[in-house]
Design goal:
single chain, mainly alpha, 3-stranded antiparallel β-sheet
Length: about 210
Amino acid sequence: MFKMFKSDRKIEIKQHIPFLIYFVLITIFSIAFDQISKIIAENNLQVGVAIPFIPGFIDFLLTYNLGAAWGMGDGQIWSRVLLCITSWLVALFIPCYLVYRFVKNQKITPLLGVSIALIFGGDIGNLIDRTFFFNRGVIDFISIQSWFPGFGIFNIADSCLVVGIFILLLYYILEEFKNAKAERERNIQLLKEKEKSSEVVSSEKNKDE
């Protein structure tokens, strides 16, 4: 099970310090912003009463969500437990993934690092609600239903998750393009070397004749 973490190389922690700094800052800020905004919303909003923030675009509408993100899910006990377990698994997986990258001395680019930090912070933000306020549910208060009817109500943690996942997809798309370009350049270089080798062989053959 722990073979994936085995390495003969020393962990070059210095090269990961910049990543660790912005990862911790983004994570802490995401969690703090989410939790503080939920406290403010709960203390200043009434359930079911919409207050325009940006008229025709964003309203503040307090709800207690017993389902999944954006108010989805039926709120049954088994689904809530499953969501809580899933959030914990994500929260445990991300540190393990980072440790794996550190052990392998694999550089974490800013784009990848920011996406992981946002996903981690967003997951922890809702995890706090799902774990410590299980009966109450997750506090959601941001609504765009004035121009997008039927869209669920969400919170800052949900927003962090969505932005983090979007950045992560963007990272993998850019990596795919970069790898494809590198592969093309490699093939072109091999073709040139093959042609050059053929020319050398042909030239030597002509000399022998």
